Amino acid sequence: MIPSRCKEDLVMFAQMESAGLEDLHFATDPNTGLRAIIAIHSTVRGPAIGGCRLIAYASDADAITDAIRLARGMSYKAALAGLPHGGAKAVIMQPAGDYDRRALMVAFGQFIDKLGGRYITAMDSGTQVQDMDAIATRTHWVSCTSRTGNPSPSTALGVFEGIGSAVRHKLGRHSLCGIRVALQGLGHVGFEVARLLHEAGAQLTVCDLDEQRCARAVQAFGARRVDPGDIYGVEADVFSPCGLGAVLNDDSIPKLRSGIIAGSANNQLAEERHGEMLHQRGILYAPDYLINAGGLVFVALNHARAPAQDISAKVHQIGAELQALFRQADALDTATSLLADQRAETIIAAGVQTAGECRESAANTQ
Ligand code: NAD
């Protein structure tokens, strides 16, 4: 009989193998309460890059699953964005009770440094610029510090470009004026997406778990507010998920009354088969790791000290990349999510950077 603890371990290895993860690292530090995990999916194309979450997880297993699940998405995102990086994700389990946040981040910086540059961290849910500054006191392998800033506006700009591209493809409209968007989540990215859409003349219906954020959007953008549970059934041209992941599932998909899904949330599909389900229903889905790549582009190119205009140009390119994917998916009559996965896997399997990427990477790191 296998003790239950060993069974958990077996699940962990099975998860790693199924996600194609290279390695998984754990660190604890009793002095600061640090309990952290770094999941490295791939370093084939270069150092693995990806944000660090600080969340109160219900269990160790939940934290491990979150890190593994998100790391693969980061590899796909970096590959499709043509960045000379693999993907990774870090999670810090929020200590119970009072704790010294700066000391926690300094200890996490030491953990990252021990990996010798295999992993570069950045902001994610629950972490902020000040945390990255604390990490930077112990390691060079960190982005989103006070020097480089917050990636959310770049993510939002890429999502805005992606929504424009999807509307052109699906509705043949070249302007967002009058386009109806149902937007879920008004955090760092969602609120900025709402602002850009409002300035472009779109009509917004919004929801958030936080009432104050809804009230701000109603006041600033003339948005209509609905309860979080009602957002899926809103009749709109675009549904834009900018909250948490796994929102496209067996429950929500039948309720949807939008022909386009284009938002910032990571891991929007609860399972891969939900991408096919959207395709069968004739809903155009902008794959999450393609449309929300603006933040990663910002993080990676800032770390490489690329000029601001290069970063901006690459973020603006997201619309054109999506357009090409939509056309190819139509031609093959296949789900956009499947096609994007295949493309990313092909790029990662090829392993090497293209000559152009090598030149760009070398120029940026000098
Ligand atoms: P955030 O924490 O600032 O905001 C998320 C917002 O969504 C919060 O206001 C929260 O209350 C709301 N929310 C959560 N669940 C909800 C629900 N069920 N219904 C309605 N509202 C809900 O996060 P963020 O930085 O804006 O990121 C949003 C999403 O985009 C996340 O999935 C994140 O992983 C992804 N993402 C963010 C970036 C970035 O640059 N910040 C980059 C790529 C992907």
TrEMBL record:
The UniProt keyword set, sorted, is: NAD, Nucleotide-binding, Oxidoreductase
> Does Signal show up as a keyword for this record?
no
Listed Gene3D superfamilies: Leucine Dehydrogenase, chain A, domain 1, NAD(P)-binding Rossmann-like Domain
Residue ranges of every copy of the Glutamate/phenylalanine/leucine/valine/L-tryptophan dehydrogenase C-terminal domain listed in the record:
149-356
User: Which InterPro entries does the entry mention?
Assistant: Aminoacid_DH-like_N_sf, Glu/Leu/Phe/Val/Trp_DH, Glu/Leu/Phe/Val/Trp_DH_C, Glu/Leu/Phe/Val/Trp_DH_dimer, Glu/Phe/Leu/Val/Trp_DH_bac/arc, NAD(P)-bd_dom_sf
* GO BP terms in the entry: amino acid metabolic process
Q: Where does NAD(+) bind?
A: G185, L186, G187, H188, V189, G190
State the SUPFAM superfamilies in the record: Aminoacid dehydrogenase-like, N-terminal domain, NAD(P)-binding Rossmann-fold domains
UniProt KW Membrane keyword: no
Q: Which residues form the active site?
A: K89 (proton donor/acceptor)
What does the record give under GO molecular function?
nucleotide binding; oxidoreductase activity, acting on the CH-NH2 group of donors, NAD or NADP as acceptor
- The highest taxon in the source lineage is Bacteria
What task does this protein carry out? Catalyzes the reversible oxidative deamination of glutamate to alpha-ketoglutarate and ammonia.
User: Can you tell me which family this protein belongs to?
Assistant: Belongs to the Glu/Leu/Phe/Val dehydrogenases family.
| Protein name listed in UniProt | Amino acid dehydrogenase
From which organism does this entry originate?
Marinobacterium aestuarii
User: What are the leading ranks of the lineage?
Assistant: Bacteria, Pseudomonadati, Pseudomonadota, Gammaproteobacteria, Oceanospirillales
